[in-house]
C-alpha cells in the first residue's frame, strides 16, 4: 500500500485497500455511501469514547447510507501493537463494531497508505496535513470527495450535528486564544532565560523560585494550547 498518490486518483473510490485478513477491497463498492474514515487504536486514551460512539453512530445512520471505515494504526506511541486481526477482534468483540475494520496501515510518512495520502492532501488541518493522533476522522461524500476533517477530541456523535459542507477551520476566537497562549509561553520563557543567564548568586536565588513558577505555568499553558489545536486536528 506504499507509493504516492497519482494525479488520476481524484476520488476515494479509486483506491484499493486490504481487510484484516489481507483480502483486497475495492473502495468503489462504497459509491453512493457517506463514509467516515478513522485511524483507530485499542490502547489510546480516546479509545473508549470513540469506539463506543462510532458503534452508536453507525447503528443510527447505516440505513441512511453511512459506512464507517476503520484503519488500525500503530504510529502513535505503539497504541495498536497487535495484528490486524487482533484489532478487528477487539473492535467487534468489545465494542460490537459492525463496520469494516481493515488491515493496519501507516498514516504518516513516506510509507503511508495511498488512501491516507489522498485524504490528507484533500483536507489538511490547521497545522499541516499530517495526522496528529489516533481517531482523526475524515468525512467523505457519496461522490468520493472529502468533505471534512475532525480531530481526535471531536466525539463521533457530534459530527451528526455539524454542517457537512462547512470546512473544519478554527474559528477566529480559537485562533485568538491560541495566539494568546503562545504569547504567554514566550513571556514565560523569556523570564526563565533571563534568570538563567544571571551570574549573581543573590539574583539567582531570587530567580530560581520564579523559574519553577514559570515552568509550571508553561506546562499548563502548553497543555491548553495543545487541546485547542487538537480539537481542530
Automatic annotation (TrEMBL):
<dbReference type="InterPro" id="IPR036249">
    <property type="entry name" value="Thioredoxin-like_sf"/>
</dbReference>
<dbReference type="InterPro" id="IPR012552">
    <property type="entry name" value="DVL"/>
</dbReference>
<keyword id="KW-0217">Developmental protein</keyword>
<keyword id="KW-1003">Cell membrane</keyword>
<dbReference type="GO" id="GO:0008285">
    <property type="term" value="P:negative regulation of cell population proliferation"/>
</dbReference>
<dbReference type="GO" id="GO:0006979">
    <property type="term" value="P:response to oxidative stress"/>
</dbReference>
<keyword id="KW-0575">Peroxidase</keyword>
<protein>
    <recommendedName>
        <fullName>Glutathione peroxidase</fullName>
    </recommendedName>
</protein>
<dbReference type="Pfam" id="PF08137">
    <property type="entry name" value="DVL"/>
</dbReference>
<dbReference type="InterPro" id="IPR029759">
    <property type="entry name" value="GPX_AS"/>
</dbReference>
<keyword id="KW-0560">Oxidoreductase</keyword>
<dbReference type="GO" id="GO:0048367">
    <property type="term" value="P:shoot system development"/>
</dbReference>
<dbReference type="InterPro" id="IPR000889">
    <property type="entry name" value="Glutathione_peroxidase"/>
</dbReference>
<keyword id="KW-1133">Transmembrane helix</keyword>
<dbReference type="Pfam" id="PF00255">
    <property type="entry name" value="GSHPx"/>
</dbReference>
<dbReference type="GO" id="GO:0005886">
    <property type="term" value="C:plasma membrane"/>
</dbReference>
<comment type="similarity">
    <text>Belongs to the DVL/RTFL small polypeptides family.</text>
</comment>
<keyword id="KW-0472">Membrane</keyword>
<dbReference type="GO" id="GO:0004601">
    <property type="term" value="F:peroxidase activity"/>
</dbReference>
<comment type="similarity">
    <text>Belongs to the glutathione peroxidase family.</text>
</comment>
<dbReference type="InterPro" id="IPR029760">
    <property type="entry name" value="GPX_CS"/>
</dbReference>
<keyword id="KW-0812">Transmembrane</keyword>
